[in-house]
Write a structure and sequence with these properties.
single chain; 413 residues; alpha/beta; Spore Coat Polysaccharide Biosynthesis Protein SpsA, Chain A; 2 domains; eight-stranded mixed beta sheet; two-stranded parallel ribbon; 50% helix; globular; disordered N terminus
Amino acid sequence: MAVLDTITQETEGHADRTGEADLVVALPSCQSREQLDDAVAGLRTVLPELLPNGKTVILHPDTAVAAASEDAGPSAADTSLQLLAVTMAPVERYHQQSLDQGLRALLQAGRTLNAKVCVMMSSEPSAESLRGLADQVLYNGFDLSVPLYARHKFDSLINRGIVYPLTRALYGARLHNPMAADMAISPQLAGKYLQSQPAAGQTDCGWITTNALCSGLQVCQVHRGFAPLPGVSEAVDLSDSLAQVLSTLLLDAERNAVCWQRVRGSQGVRTFGRPEPEENESAPAQVGEMIETFHRGCKDLLDIWATALSPATLLNLKKLAKLPEDQFRLPDGVWVHALYDFMLGHRQRVINREHLLRAMTPIYLAWVASYALEVQTFSPAAVVNRIETLGAAFEDLKPYLLSRWRWPDRFNP
């Protein structure tokens, strides 16, 4: 917490000298003068319409030491826009700690400046995105707005197969991008987030989306184009990425257990804007290597799987390994049971948590292969329906998770 405390003090000190502002925007991906110049020039095109006669403060990393150029930045007579350099690193996708650092700097500045809305733009800054996200907090009474990105059928499969349906089942909100790192935040939600403290043995306070949902605050999503490229390198191993996502989700679930155990079913989330035009895709699915990885996992990781998976789920995975590629289908029930079992094993620390989560990779690839083979000829609308069916399966099997969560020693399917 020492690093975050230092950041908070630094941000508050800068903001104290700024006065007040209506909007505070954080741009952690702008690590150079050139990136910052371009971003500020673009954002300034929407600020007069978004906040007539309002004042905006833009937080940027102190690595962009030259602030902005004369053409992009505010002039001496322009008091509607001010730039502040703070300690802020690029946000890694799905990485709670890197997002938490930037969020706390942003929200602390927003509180000090008495801002009406704070906007985190972790990916490539976009004037359209700023307007779409901030509008809902400024003028429609929402506490959190996040983007709903357009996707091709094989895009964002960790989100589609795990993050969205699991979050939907746990917290009861059909928010399609619950781990978004771009968002607009109200003062009420900012205050709750800043007041929260990490649980024992944890280094952060949880994902802000689940914080909002468990607090009963108003959440919405805004249609955007296809997701921009992440602001930092993603040249990482799939096992690393998957373990990082699962760790964030499962630690959050432990933190919020009292909240999600009361939730039954799910509800749609208010959605604004227009979706991107849909295009049919018919590329054949290349799944051979994925299935082979799953086969190797059935041989090499069986002992680790057995520490977490129920006997029935383990048996179903062994049956799946015997199917030829053209019949390779992982039923939703088996996939959901496997995820819930790993979630429970993580909570009970059946083995080292990192080793356990990495061992999930072959099962995840089995789901990806099964999904790809199933939807390769689907229309965009049919793909959406398929993911909604998966989400419903997570909800239907939530009683299994609840029973084993509450009474782990009494439940052995």
